[in-house]
Write a structure and sequence with these properties.
Length: 276
């Protein structure tokens, strides 16, 4: 009988031990399921991403938004490991940045496409632009090229016919003798007190409270516009990260498409299903 009691005690101790181990294991599994992802964005995009934070929380993913006010820092922060992903650039910008910085940043999903617009404080129509007027365009190589192409679309200048990125040196015809000045993209909207017109990126215009309907010219979106689709990006070594892919999936929904339309007053279009 005493032997039986001893055996019972041993069994009870063993069961208690394994129960505690199992509970600890479950706790560790639960903790390991909670992932934190740091995403770098530009300006007013936070209003698009905030609803996604709540959605991902239910999946055990904590999305931390880090805001930037320039186009130069987010990729550096990504490569240094300060960020896990970012969402501020288009394919053209990413490829150019990789080339200039020997980077290995890649896209893991499309977000939206936003036409550049031309704004003015003094003109109601782009045809009113006078000879010798001052014109501001973004200065980073990708947007300088794009801004110049917008001016060409509008019939103001002619450019060299080449596929590589264009600069102001590639203007071949400037009948109005426009004084085209590249500025940091974030400053283009603020320059409107000093220039006749400015080519402004959509997120910059949004932050500066410029109404899309007040633009005097809008970039035409064609099949050639695909390189200007904005993306979620990460480093090449993380391109297959399952958690990052869940972030992209949570973004690419009809609810997000509606939010993009709402936040940007209909001026920006969800790109993952866009028909070019």
């Amino acid at each position: 009988m005493k032997k039986l009691n001893k055996l019972t005690k041993v069994l009870l101790l063993a069961i208690s031990f394994f129960s505690i181990f199992a509970l600890v294991g479950c706790g560790q599994q639960k903790d390991s399921a909670n992932k934190t992802v740091k995403i770098g964005i530009y300006g007013s995009d936070d209003r698009v991403w905030k609803p996604i934070v709540s959605k991902l929380k239910k999946q055990g993913i904590t999305l931390k938004i880090v805001e930037f006010n320039d186009y130069n820092t987010p990729n550096k922060a990504l490569e240094s490991g300060e960020l896990d992903i970012n969402a501020f650039q288009n394919y053209h910008f990413m490829n150019d940045w990789n080339k200039a910085n020997k980077g290995d940043i890649v896209s893991i999903g499309d977000t939206y496409i936003a036409p550049l617009r031309v704004y003015s404080k003094s003109l109601k129509n782009i045809s009113e632009l006078k000879d010798g007027s001052k014109v501001a365009i973004p200065s980073d190589s990708t947007n300088e090229d794009r801004g110049l192409r917008v001016l060409q679309q509008a019939g103001l200048i002619k450019l060299k016919d080449k596929s590589s990125l264009l600069t102001t040196k590639d203007v071949t015809d400037n009948p109005k003798k426009l004084k085209i000045t590249p500025l940091d993209a974030a400053q283009t909207a603020h320059s409107l007190t000093d220039v006749a017109i400015a080519v402004v990126n959509n997120d910059v215009a949004q932050d500066a409270k410029l109404e899309p309907s007040s633009a005097i010219y809008k970039e035409k979106i064609t099949k050639e516009s695909k390189p200007y689709v904005n993306i979620v990006a990460t480093t090449k070594k993380n391109k297959d990260n399952k958690t990052y892919k869940k972030v992209v999936k949570a973004y690419q929904t009809e609810a997000t498409a509606k939010k993009i339309k709402e936040v940007y007053n209909g001026s920006t279009y969800a790109a993952w299903n866009y028909k070019f």
